[in-house]
Write a structure and sequence with these properties.
single chain; alpha+beta; Aminopeptidase; seven-stranded mixed sheet; globular; binds coenzyme A
Length: 202
């Protein structure tokens, strides 16, 4: 496996892997929306740190982190336009997404935005091809981001995980993230970049 930075032109490939690896709200919104999400994140390389893990030339894992969580979340909200409404409504009807889920997510985001300054480093997306999980890919991707943030002299890196995502929570806790709080179905975790004991790979 090798790890290298991702670029805008890989947005569609990333979106395909996202759809097979993640069953979150964004996946339910369809490939077009997910592709636009990655085009957005990868078109701001100064603010977003991104790495892909590759095995024999195939993308098997993705991580994207931001140096400014508030700006990133605001930018992600702009992806929802009037044109998204029919899809959203259809997903409400078919049960993929519920209005309650959307409201809970917005409340959670409001809470973390109030708590964290804009100048806050955070992991925005992380996923690994289901056929390659538990082989150290996720850990290696987080490690790459941690190295970058340390160079930039950040003190902490945050991540929010759905409180019902047991595998995601176990993963982040295993590599040294600490749970800060749970609120409306979301859990915020933090990793200290100045701590002595770091991820197992360091
Ligand atoms: C969470 C995820 C990124 C982990 O990636 P991964 O490549 O499988 O993780 P690693 O192999 O590097 O695991 C490192 C350690 O984390 C812990 N861990 C990882 N997955 C776990 C799981 N499903 N259950 C319990 N512990 C787990 C283990 O301790 C593991 O070490 P071990 O395999 O030696 O026991 C992957 O399962 C995934 O893509 N999930 C779907 C998307 C997601 O939930 N993303 C996180 C929220 S942003």
């Amino acid at each position: 496996m090798h790890i290298s930075p991702l670029s805008y032109v890989q947005s569609e490939e990333i979106a395909s892997l996202h759809k097979s690896a993640v069953s979150d709200t964004s996946s339910y919104l369809g490939k077009k929306y997910v592709t636009r999400l990655y085009q957005l994140l990868l078109s701001h390389p100064k603010q977003h740190i991104s790495f892909g893990a590759f095995e024999k030339g195939h993308l098997i894992g993705v991580i994207i982190a931001t140096t400014h969580i508030r700006n990133t979340q605001k930018a992600m909200h702009t992806l929802f336009t009037f044109r998204s409404l029919p899809t959203l409504f259809f997903r409400f009807l078919t049960g993929g997404i519920t209005p309650k889920k959307v409201v809970k997510r917005l409340l959670f985001e409001r809470k973390i935005q109030a708590l964290l300054g804009n100048n806050t480093a955070a992991i925005v997306v992380l996923f690994v091809d289901p056929t390659h999980v538990r082989t150290g890919v996720g850990k290696a991707l987080v490690h790459s981001v941690i190295v970058k943030f340390k160079k930039a002299q950040a003190k902490f890196v945050y991540v929010d995980v759905s409180s019902d995502n047991d595998e995601g929570l176990s993963f982040f806790e295993h590599i040294g993230f600490i749970k800060l709080f749970e609120y409306f179905g979301g859990t915020l975790l933090r990793y200290s970049l100045t701590q002595k004991k770091r991820t197992n790979q360091e």
